[in-house]
Amino acid sequence: MATVLSVSGSPSASSRTNRLLRHLDARLAAQGHEVLPLDVRTIPAEALLGADFRHPAIVEATALLARADGVVIGTPVYKAAYSGVLKALLDLLPQYALTGKTVLPLATGGTTAHVLAIDYALRPVLSSMGARHIVQGWFTLDQDITVGENGSLAVAPGAAEALNQVLDQFSEALGRTPVLAAAG
Question: Which segments constitute the NADPH-dependent FMN reductase-like domain (predicted)?
């Protein structure tokens, strides 16, 4: 199957976004994909904020992206946009780093007023980076994600069903062979 880079754009290790993404990673792995997790918050701030393209953590993130067939990008929504740490990373990646990749954008937030953040804030950036196919993303309300005392994650039934559908679409898109134009 495919190699998937799973990028958590949350600045917090205990965020619902981060936990949801790692929960979905397990489902992708169960479908046979190799999943490579990347938590942007673990990249040193001096590399991200200082735009240090040669920092080993940035070089490693770029190499992970190059290795991946597909990318899942998860972010909390702050002020109707994706997170600043995710923005900092995307700015340091090569201009066409997503060329040939299938991408699944996911977002979480406290209100449905942020539901369009994927389409109006994140999708244009992913498209400009050359993504071959950006599957329909999904926004999940914070209230639909419950973290148990033992760290277990539960997703409300309606949200879980929708997330399973977008994951299946992403997985199916990864299995497709790109159609190349015949040389003329």
Answer: 3-144
